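Lecture notes, unit on protein representations.

Consider one protein chain, 117 amino acids long.
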Amino acid sequence: MSIGYDPGSPVPPYEQVRTALATQINDGTLAVGTKLPTVRGLAADLGIAPNTVARAYRELEEAGLLETRGRAGTFVGATGDFALTRAQAAAASYASVIRQLGLTAEQGLAIAEAALR
């Protein structure tokens, strides 16, 4: 597992960790059931605060990509597809709002892209 962390980036550290892990889970690099490093271990490896890693893990768990099994640790969850399902539902809802506001698809995409940056 390789997490790219750039301390000079304007992207918050927890978001860099969250994005790197989510990408590896969604592309299959991290298979279902893979045990992740402890919060403290990953924080030490990256040179960041443990709370930063804990936040990234928590958000990934809420998205269904990770499972915490008490003292056994944190693992890649079997419900990773749930995250994609939630994202698709959110996108459909967003598209509906954009249409109701009378905005064009191009305007809606520009707003969404700006929000994702």
